[in-house]
Every structure is written in C-alpha cells, then in structure tokens.
Amino acid sequence: MEPQIIKNKPLSKDESKALLELIEMSKIIISKATNASSNKMKDKEWVRIAEQFNATATSCRRTPQQLRLKWENLKKNARKRCTKIRMNNINTGGGVGKRKLQGDGSKSARDRAIAEYYTFKKLCLESKLENKKLKLENEKLLLEIENFKK
C-alpha cells in the first residue's frame, strides 16, 4: 500500500521568496549536472534546504519533495511566461501588442531577476556615460589650460 498523501495549503508569497533565497544560495541545486553522484548530492541538499525552510517557516512543515516540486513548478511557469512574451513579440514584430499578457498578479523569480538585471544594466550604462562626460570635460579643461599657458 502507498502511504497516504497529505495535501497542505499552498506556499505563501513570503514562503516562496524564502525558498528561492535558499535555492539561490545553493550551487548544487542550480547546477545542471545530472549524473548519479550529483543527483545524490542534490537529494541531500534538498533535505538540508527543507530543514532550513522548516526552521524559518511559520506554517506547516514541508517535505523536500514538496519544496522540490514547488521549485520545478516555478521554473515551468517562468518558461511558459517567457515563451508567451517571445511569441507575442514575434506576432507584433517586436512592437507593442494589441493585447497585454495577463499575469497571475505575482512576479516570478525569473521576472524579478530580469527586472533587476536591466535596472542594474541601466545604472551601469548611465554611470559609464557620466564617466565619459567627465573625461571629456576634463580633457577640455586641460586643453584650455594648455592654450592659456601659450
């Protein structure tokens, strides 16, 4: 006989964020290697993550299998959303579509990471531009000083 599966309530947004933070700290889980030794290490890592998660979680305890399934579902939903966005861009030739994609009201970890990446990239480009402006102004001042000395 199979053991009875007890269904718990879904993870809250805070619990999902906590799970993502634990997964992001683990290089083993994120690695794409799937040989026997790495799979054993991943299983041990999921047990460790479940212990840490349950130590901080306020609601019911979660098994490593439940947390792993949640992680797989998060990745699958992110891929689906990314595909929808890509297909929408193909249909519109890269422009703005006639209809917006309806989200589920919450941003996935991938969406947040992409948004943070582009925000950071924008800041870097702005700082590089500012540095170039300052260098040009500095060179301009040096030329003026040289002209003034002559």
Automatic annotation (TrEMBL):
Transmembrane segments: none annotated. InterPro entries: Myb_DNA-bind_5 (IPR028002), SANT/Myb (IPR001005). It holds the Pfam family Myb_DNA-bind_5. Keywords: Transcription, Transcription regulation. It comes from the Eukaryota. Residues 7-77 form the Myb-like domain. The keyword Transcription regulation applies. Involved in transvection phenomena (= synapsis-dependent gene expression), where the synaptic pairing of chromosomes carrying genes with which zeste interacts influences the expression of these genes. Zeste binds to DNA and stimulates transcription from a nearby promoter. Self-associates forming complexes of several hundred monomers. This is Regulatory protein zeste.
